[in-house]
Design brief:
This protein has 182 residues and is of the alpha+beta class. Helices cover 26% and strands 40% of the residues. It has one domain. The radius of gyration is 16 Å and the shape is globular. About 7% of the residues have low confidence.
Length: 182
């Protein structure tokens, strides 16, 4: 399974190499759900190497896809690091978020002292529940015979490529939240 997962992630990333803003014919503000379904995967697909030294780098593939069930956003993040694969599924009630819940910052998390090379994320999108309420369902699956774990969280991060992608994703998510607010 992990070989198939790695190949699918790599192919998906390769096919979606152009920035989302360059592919888009739709508008993130007018139809945010359709725009996110069409373009988030390409913007949030990265392939790079990372590790504590140039001689101990591991190959990393990260891909994020999104679907909508009304005002519930289902965000899936597939990650392969070396020979380990995992899938995280977040069920995010958009109506429970504030329009200020979505932010973007430059860079992405690496342990202190680590290095990276390749198609590294340039920005990190953060979705944070108001008052740090754990309203986001989180399912974590590792492909190593470990049982899936279900939990709740108040924050989700999405690494993306290109500043333009980050800005468009923040706009689309903010508009989707606005439409779902009571």
């Amino acid at each position: 399974m992990t070989g198939v997962v790695r190949a699918a992630l790599a192919l998906g990333c390769w096919l979606a190499a152009a920035p989302a803003w360059a592919q888009s014919t739709g508008d993130a503000a007018t139809d945010p759900a359709a725009w996110l379904k069409a373009y988030l995967g390409g913007a949030a697909c990265v392939v790079y190497d990372a590790g504590p030294t140039p001689f101990r780098l591991e190959h990393v593939i990260e891909n994020t896809e999104v679907q909508f069930d009304g005002c519930r956003m289902v965000l899936q993040q597939a990650t392969t690091i070396g020979n380990r694969s995992e899938l995280r599924t977040f069920r995010i009630p958009l109506g429970a978020l504030d329009t200020s819940s979505v932010t973007s910052r430059e860079g992405f998390f690496l342990p202190e002292g680590w290095i990276s090379r390749g198609d590294v994320p340039t920005h990190t999108i953060t979705i944070t529940a108001p008052d740090r309420q754990k309203v986001i369902e989180d399912r974590y699956e590792r492909f190593d015979d470990t049982a899936p774990q279900d939990d709740r969280t108040d924050v989700v991060t999405v690494p993306v490529r290109h500043a333009e992608n980050a800005a468009q994703i923040v706009l689309a998510l903010t508009k989707a939240i606005e439409r779902c607010r009571p």
